[in-house]
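Most newcomers find our protein records easier to grasp once they have seen one. Sequence and backbone structure share a record, each on its own labelled line. Nothing more is needed to start thinking about how sequence determines fold. As an example, a complete record with its sequence and its structure tokens follows.
=====
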Amino acid sequence: MSLNILNHFDKSNLNGITVFKLKEDERKNFLEKLPGPFRSLYLSDEILNERIKLFGSSRINEILEKIPDQANIQSGEFAELLLYFFIPECYISGDCLNPPKWKWKQHKNRALQFTDVLILQIKTKDNPSVEDFLIAVESKAQATKPGKDVIRLHDAIRGSEEDYVSRLAESLVYLKARYKDELNVDSVKYLERFMETPRFPSYIKYFKAVGIVDDEFAGNELSKADPTSKIIKDSLEVILISMKDMKEIYENVYSQMPNK
């Protein structure tokens, strides 16, 4: 699903950092797009309707059982959910596998300890090639005033380095297990192309370290961040997404989810 999110942002590049800034005159249109698609990543329409029917519950109660209500979790997951849609619009053409990991959370107010967003593409179905690729995305959010020495882009780069060293492999194993639980054969086979390296050609890995911050803190991030890594040898892109009154935005989105 494409939400055409990029239309709401101005894009630039500064000091080696790709910058997206929410246009203030697009704020309303941007906000109106998010609650329904974001809610569906926690609880699809199909599963939501089944839960209502089986348990005699209300739509609102079923949704509230799944979405976080703690501010720090909402802020971080708002960033992840945004990137779930944002990154494919930027970098993907054609079909891909973009696992909605939030639906598998066991505790709504605890973050999952795996790659934040993972997107995989096999260029030609049933014919793996060296043109196949995955994108591993690490996000860090900052909606309120940060500590004195906090640079969220640096935190995101360190997270990408963790993905590069070990967490990406762990994430693939986790996702395969979840899809097997669902008896989703196609997704399991898709993942195996990126896991069973002796069986298949090599593929490309891209890493995206993303800070999503309030406009108030964007200047500090851009002036102090070093968008390089001594660890990651594949492609690393550092991205800053900024928006005015970010706390108000994510609170609005989560408050609207139970009605979508």
About this structure: The CA atoms of residues 212 and 241 lie 5 Å apart. The mean pLDDT is 96. The beta strands are 9-14, 17-22, 117-121, 133-142, 204-214, 235-243. Residues 152-181 form the longest helix (30 residues).
